[in-house]
Amino acid sequence: MPADGSTERKTAPASNTPPLSNALKRNDGTPLHVDWFEGAQVNTSAAERRAATLTTRRTVKKEYQAAWLVKAVTLMDLTTLAGDDTPGRVQRLCAKARRPFREDLVEALGLQANPPKVGAVCVYPTMVAPAVKALEGSGIPVASVATGFPAGLTPLKQRLEEIHYAVGEGAHEIDIVITRAHVLNGDWQALYDEVAAMREACGEAHLKAILATGDLKTLRNVYKASMVAMQAGADFIKTSTGKEDVNATLPVSLVMCRAIRDYLALTGFKIGFKPAGGLRTAKDAMAWLILMKEELGNDWLEPDLFRIGASSLLADIERQIEHYVTGRYSSTIRHALA
Description:
Blueprint: H1 44-57, H2 62-74, E1 76-79, H3 87-98, H4 103-108, E2 120-123, H5 128-134, E3 142-145, H6 156-169, E4 173-177, H7 180-184, H8 188-201, E5 206-210, H9 219-231, E6 236-238, H10 250-267, E7 272-274, H11 282-295, E8 308-310, H12 312-326
Parallel strand pairs: 1-2, 1-8, 2-3, 3-4, 4-5, 5-6, 6-7
Helix pairs in contact: 1-10, 2-11, 2-12, 3-5, 6-8, 8-9, 9-10, 10-11
C-alpha cells in the first residue's frame, strides 16, 4: 500500500459490479499506525458485564419484536459452507434468500409491496457462479469466502489467486481470513501487509476480514487485530469463520464495535461489522441488533454496515414470525432453508 494510505484497485468487469446500495466511500485504509492500538487495554470483566446488560436493559415485544426480526433477515448473509455443497443446493438456498418468508406470512405482515430479502448469500468460490445466476435480477449480492478458508494457512500467492477467481466468477464481496500467528506474535506489519494485498486483489469487491477471534486468545488481541485490518483497508471486520471452537460472542463483538468507533473518530470512515458462527436463534439476532444500536447507532442497522453470518438462524426467525402471526409454534422442520 502506498505511503499515503491509498490503494490501486483493479476494476472488475461491468457484469461483476456489486449491485449494492452502499453510497459510503470505500475504505482505502491508512498507513500502519501502531500507536493507535499498541497501548490499548481491555477490561475483560467489564466487557462481559456490559455485554450481559444488553438484553436486560431493553425489551422488545409483540409487533416491535416482529419488526426487529424482519430487519434481522434483511441484514443476513445467508450461508452454506459445507463440504457437500452442490449447485442445486446453492440454487435452493438462493430461492430462500429471495423469499425468506412464506407468502402467507408476508401478507399477514403487510409487506406484499416490498417483501423482505436477505442481505447477501455467502458460498465457497466454486459455488459463486451458480449463486450469481440464481440471484440474477434480485439485487442480492454474492459473498465468497476465500484465502484458504477457514485456516488461511495456504501460501499468500495462492490465497490472492483464490480472491481473483471468486471475483472473476462474479462475487461482490470477499470474506478473507487472516493469519492468526501474526496476531499471536504481535507482527502487525505482516498482518497489515497481508490484508492490504488481499484488499487490492478484491478490486471493487468489498472485503470482509475474518479475525477468527476464538483463536486470538485475548480481547486485547481482538482490538488490535481489528484496528490493523481496518487500517489495511478492510470494509468490514468479522468475528469468526464459524469453524473455531468459540465463535461470535457478545463481549468480543463489543470490543470490535469499540474499535470501529475509535477508527471512525480517527479517520472519518465507517467500517462494517459481521458476527458469524453460533447465532442460531431469534433471541441471538435480537441481542446483536441491540448491540449495534447502542454501541454504533442506527447507521449500523443497515446492510451496508452490518451483516449477520448465519444459516439455521433464518429458520428460527421464520418460526417466531409464524408464532406472531398465528399464535402457534410450528416444528422447525417446516422451515427448511433449501
